[in-house]
């Protein structure tokens, strides 16, 4: 086996050994908001789902950026239990990058943000981080290139209007709504062609 083959095999084994309970390190954990909210009124996820949060599976823990807490590690089981509906059904959709992910470098990049505050303004600065920004800034291929480029942010609903919530929120901080500015959102990540998405609990790679 040549050097390239050895490296490829090592990467595959690293991914396999990082998996547990049907989840692998590097999997994206998307959360569905059944009732919808301000975020889902202006974005949409895979299969049209109202997705308002995304986290990163990191072994037995989850890396996530949470309002009021910032970027933190959360026990994976606690995360999965936290995101269930009133009937106890999972609200989590698992997203797995199909190919090209440098898992080790991606997790190293994501972990470096632990402890930073949550970015409620959705700004591009690294001083604070929001949930999908954590993914966008961390996920790279084996050449160190970003897997998920920034996109123009969307703050307009289906009628083409910016909801008053966002107008008031940014006005109170002396800022314009950053419509069209570079950014990201959980729904957009779930729709990326490089990501395979399925409902947690439906079996690996089911939909």
Description:
The chain is α+β, with helices and mostly antiparallel strands. It has a single domain, classed as endopeptidase domain like (from Nostoc punctiforme) (endopeptidase fold (from Nostoc punctiforme), Alpha-Beta Complex), CATH 3.90.1720.10. 25% of the residues lie in helices and 21% in strands. It has 6 helices and 10 strands. The protein has a 6-stranded antiparallel β-sheet. It has a two-stranded antiparallel ribbon with strand order 1-2. Helix 3 crosses helix 4. It is globular, with a radius of gyration of 17 Å.
3D shape? globular
Distance between the termini: 36 Å
Portion in strands: 15-25%
Number of domains: 1
Order of helices and strands: HEEEEEEHEHHEHEHE
**The CATH superfamily title:** endopeptidase domain like (from Nostoc punctiforme)
- Poorly predicted segments: 1-17
The CATH architecture? Alpha-Beta Complex
